[in-house]
Every structure is written in C-alpha cells, then in structure tokens.
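Schema walkthrough. Field components (list of strings):
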Amino acid sequence: MGRLLLLLVIVGGGVLQSTVVAVAGVGGVTPDVPLILTVLIALRHGPESGCLAGFVAGLLQDASGGGLLGVQALTKGLAGFGMGLLVGRFWVSNPLVQVPGLVLLSIAEGLARFLLLQMFHYPATLGELMLHVILPQALYNGLIGTLCILAEATIELVRRRAWR
Amino acid sequence: MRVRRYGILLAVLLVSLLLLTVQTRGGGTGRASELVTVAVTPVQGLLVRIHRSALDFWANYVEWKSVRRENTVLREENEHLRVQALQAGETREENVRLRRLLVLRDRLPLATVSGEVIGREAGGWVRSLTVNRGRGDGIAQQTPVIVPDGLVGRVVQVHRAAAVVQLLNDPASTVGAVVQRTRTAGLVEGDAGGTVRFKFMARDGASVTLGDLVVTSGLGTTFPKGLPVGRVVKVEDKGSALFHFAVLAPAVDFSRVEEVLLVTGQTTQDVAALFPPEG
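Field assembly_structure (string):
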C-alpha cells in the first residue's frame, strides 16, 4: 500500500469517526475506528508506519473533537509503535491473536490517555471511565476489528482463486 | 533501521508533548488546529449530506426497480407511495424542526446565528458537536448554543468556517444554574457516564422535587438567564452533608440535534418563558 493511500485511509477513518460512527453508537458507546486502523496498519507495515499512522489519526481526532491537541496523537502513536514491534515476535498474523491484541491495546491506550490527562486535571475518575468508556469501547473495537480481519481474509481468498 | 525506527517514535513524542506544552502555557495551537479543520470540515459536511440523502437513494433504487417490472403496476405503485411517505415524513420532520427553531429565534430578544451539525464526538472522553458556523459568521469562544428544547452547550473552539461545541454532558462542562421553582442555585456538570448532575445545592430550604425544571442562572457573562437545562429525575441526599445533588434528564436529546442556534448577542432578561413548556 502506498504512503498516500495509507494517509487517505487514516484521514478517511478520522472523518468517518466524527460523522457516521458518531451516530452509530450502541448505548452511547462508539468504536474507535482510527485506533483500529492504526493497529491494522502497524500489524502489516511495522512500527514506523504504525507510529506515524497513529500520530496523524490521533491529531485529527484531537482537532475535530475539541480536546487538547496532542493527547490522542501521542497515545495512538505509541499504540501503533507498540503493536508494530510485536510483528515478528509473536504470532500476530493469526486473527485469534490480532483481535484480543486489539482489545488489550484499546484498554492500554485508554489508560495511557487517562494518565496523560491527569496532568491537565481531567475531571472524570478512572473507575467511571473504565466502566462507561474504556471497556465498552475496547470490546466494540474488538468486534469491528474482527469484521475488518474477516473482510480482508475474504478478499484475499477471492483474489487467490481469481489467480488460479 | 533501528535508529530510524526510534527516531520516528522520538519525533512523535516530541511533537505531541510540544503541542501539549504550548496549549497549557497559554499559547495557541490555533494555526495547526485550523489547518487540520480546514482540510476535514468540507469532507465532514459532504458525508453528512450523503448520510441524509440515503432515503433519496433508496427512493431512486425503488423507482428503477419498478420500471423493470411493468407487469406488477400495483406493487410498484404501493412501493412508490411507501417511499414517498417516508420522504414526506422526513421532510415534514425537518420542516417542523426548522419551524420551531425559527419561532424561537423570532421570540428571543437576542442576536442568533443558525447552524447545522456536521460532526459529532460522543466517545465519552469528550462529548462535542461540530457546527458549520465559525469565525467568519461572528462566532466566538464561549458562545452559547441552543435549540427549542433548551441549552445544548457552549463553543470551545472556533475555526474559520466551523466551531466545536462542548455538550452539557461533557465531563468538563460546568454551567451555573438555578431550580426554576425554588431559585435554588447550583452547578450543572457532566460526567464520563453521560449523565448531567446539578451539584452544590444548599440543603437548607432547598426542597427540590422530582420534575423541577433547572435553568441557567445568568450569573457570569456566558449564558443568558433562563435557558432550560433539564428536569430533576433523582435527588441524592447524603444525610448530614452541607450540599446535596440531583440527577437531571437533559432538556435536549443531544444525539438528535441537527440544527442549532448560536447566541451571539446578550440580554439580562429571563428567557425561560420564551421556550415552549415541553420543548
């Protein structure tokens, strides 16, 4: 995938997050599409691309959401880098590893964001956030990630059959 | 390879921390934020239009299908009418919403600018809307945002052609308010769970009951007096504490807000009576 296409995917994910995804929440919980895309990019292109993709995706979310500019850029950049480092060390090509990995990384990203926001006197408590935001969103991310991975596998299968 | 890898990580860390430092030291990230928004706002607007024209797309699809099935004229007519009814319903609802907004705008003794919602952030960390009005339309930070049901929130970021509105149920939102019936003063705050609480009510003589309407107090310069905020659905009484708090059902259903009024003028008049009794 070319760099321009990667950038388009990330920008598209950010726009999707603030328009279509924002009204498609279940019980007030929405998936974090830019984080899912960051993880998928990191798994396929390594820590450098994952880190940059996470940074750009986070920056877009910070700018469109009205929060502090740089918080999500930092946490998503770290998440992309961390996930990219796992490639080659664990069996991350297996969906059974990718999906729980995405859920755990979503929780870790939420915790990192909370810790960072503590420096800026963020008013909510960790318990509240964990219950209402971080855990539900991590599970939702896992579900959407599963669908993405299944869709990708199906496309790959169809492509291979077409080559025969 | 290794140097490049950690170099990128270091660069990302430095840029992010620099942005955060600049903001907390009172500097502006206005230009950087502006650039990102300028690129994203038109696409957001486009996506919202695509979202809203989904019904039209469905109608066209049904019509196309009907042409192919000339022998089933009755079914075609039936489907056609159904779609028309759907479209008419959607248009009627939009019409009603806009009419209510217009009535409110005419009633209020305040200068207002109407705007359309083009983006939402409802993840829980931040609860905000993006509207298609910005600096070019005379919008400034702290501009109150209302609908005929009541207060939506306030503008926290202004760009050239868009503004980010912090919703009442955002965890960082705080609004001075009073109970309309008893004039008991307190603060309305959002929380991470999405509920809105009316806090710091003096216990002494408060006598707040379920169903009481809470409106903006008008103290300070941000919000006009009397904007409906919500109704009391639960009163938490902690025994001997000096203050107690109430849980509110917001006057506005934030997930369904599509058109808003941005209040650019100021008044000292109590505007509560100008809002329809039940939204």
